[in-house]
Amino acid sequence: HRIVALLTGLSERPVSLYAAAVLRIGYGLLYLVFLLREFPHRDEIWGPGSPWTPELARQLFDQTGWASILTLSDSRAYFEVCYALALVTSALFMLGWRTRAVSVLFAVVVASFHARAIFMTDGGDNLILLMALYLVFTACGRRWSLDARRTCLRASAGTTPRTPMALGAEELWRFRGTLTAVLHNCGMFVIAAQVCFLYGSAGLYKVQGNSWGNGTALHYVLNLDLFRPWPELSLMVDEHDVMISIACYLTVLLQVAFPFVLFGRLKYPVLT
Asked: What is the pTM of this model?
């Protein structure tokens, strides 16, 4: 009976709507800041002036099956328009405006920029791409969005009486609601599984490393230029050996434990 009730609930009600909203806002803001940060270097990374030319990218796409809207034309004006649209799309996705349509555009933008400079991407870019694709299937605009605000304003203004046509379409709307709930819940389940794999595998890989076992891994990380945007702060932290060791062990413990606490209240302090 519990299984039947669970399946019924998952097909009738979208779960974790606030979590989906946090993901939408977070990834939309992150990609917007990323594009703004790289604005002075956009041509060298993704544009016609890149060493990895659009022609080379198209040749690679023939082998890999990737695609990018940035390679549809070699025109600089076309690239600038695409970049501007990418900025607008990221901002609208973050704000939750017409989220169903904009989420698809956001996924296209992320996939296009990812594929255009595929040799400059890393694990973080891969994760953003995956999450952008997963969020297309979720109702991530139901909370903390302009769509939600518009719905509330309509509700406060009062609803119009239903016509016989609307009554005849009631089954269709009910099916639409069920489909939306199922797709959303499946999308959130895949996102949760992705996060579990991410943290679990990262923790297990760290367990195999000697530097994480003896508590010195973060000492080396803090002395890599790639991971210290504020060198003075990194040097100050690196002076405390005991704190570095505790942070190493705590990192491994939390990453390995995360998949096991996902469905309990303990996940909130672990996430923090």
From this structure: 0.86
